[in-house]
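EI: anyone free to look at a 138-residue chain?
SC: sure, send it
EI:
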Amino acid sequence: MIFAPLFLFTISIKYINMIKLKFIRGKKWQVYEPIKHRLHDHTTIIIPKGFTTDLSSVPKILWGVFPPFGNFLLASIVHDYLYVIKYKSNRRFCDEEMLYLSNKLNKNKIDNYIRYYAVRWFGWIYWSYVDIQNELKY
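SC: here you go
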């Protein structure tokens, strides 16, 4: 039996010290321990253990310029989760939460805004077709 390695990403932010993810296959990762996060609207969410994410949804051909992981990792995971649960049925809020959190964690503002506009322009595809039953399987 083959087990995928466990990768740990350290995030320097006051309310979370580590994000533990397990590689599944391809571009899919699984949250290994629940992640508690307070959104900029002051709502607290808990991303459950087992939640599947692709981190930052960047085509592999662009990974050299825009890797799917980095200081914005938490923002990407929160964004994926908000999309899956269709938070407030408001895609704009989900995208703005990603930008807000990215700007707190990642000092590269140009990178943050490129990623933000990418999800504003193309995120509707995922938003329209995501199935909470498929995405939240443990």
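EI: The beta strands are 6-13, 16-25, 28-31, 35-38, 44-47, 52-53.
SC: 👍
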